[in-house]
Amino acid sequence: MTKEEFQKLAEQTLILDGATGSNLMASGMPRGICTETWVIDHKDIIQDLQRAYIKAGSQVIYAPTFGGNRLNLEKHGLADRIKEINRTLVSYSKELAGNGVYVAGDITTSGSFITADGDYTYAEAFDMYQEQIRILADAGIDLIAAETMINIEETLAAVDAAASVCDLPIMCTMTVEADGSIFSGGNAIEAAVSLEAAGADAVGINCSVGPDQLVSVVRNIRENVSIPVIAKPNAGMPVIDDSGNAVYSMHAGDFARHMKVLIKSGASVVGGCCGTTPAFIKALHDIIR
User: Fold this and answer.
1) 34 among annotated binding-site residues
2) Mean per-residue pLDDT for 72-95?
3) What residues bind Zn(2+), as annotated (predicted)?
4) Burial of 119 (0-12, 13-18, 19+ CB in 10 A)
């Protein structure tokens, strides 16, 4: 996909997929393991989930490469398998794509903050993203999704790294509080403006809170950028049950109604994050189509 093709798609409401991690855990994935290798060993589970998202109306599915960067894989002793892991996971999603369905190479934060006197630098972030994005691009993804980002500087490194190895569109979403503030400092509006200037093709938010709490954030982002705005929130705020599991109380119909408000407020690239299922994407599709 070219950047121009992406912009044309986003002129109408572009529907992304919903959650991956929370659905994998519901399907039996244990805590504390390497998600990427578990998915490789359970191809049927991830493909059944993505097939259901496509049936529900998703036009973009995220390849399950979320934690496939070198720094994360090193924690599991798997850095030497980075190419194999990412290429295999992309292939699972590509087997289901086509006919108007696109595959995004999913990347995320290292979990570290880039600071002037820190142990983690822009150069290290750039190298980490450049390596993974090159593998994903070679594996045949259609676009890049940098999601659940917690540091503006690290996200800028991802955008720069993408531009250094390919011409694919890159979507960037920060995880924010209801007031738009970012955990590591700054806010979603500042991030969106900086990322557009750096060359991002769409900007916005994912994870954190529900769509009912993000109207002003989405509206403010829309008023400050000229590229598409993304909204991929959770199914409301979770409650932790006695077993330590996150329980989301928002139902699919309520989620869709709140998402319609976000679309009216300026979001044109929409989907769901933690707690959402194919039923949420179907409700979203049905309320806007």
Assistant:
1) no
2) 98
3) 207, 273-274
4) exposed
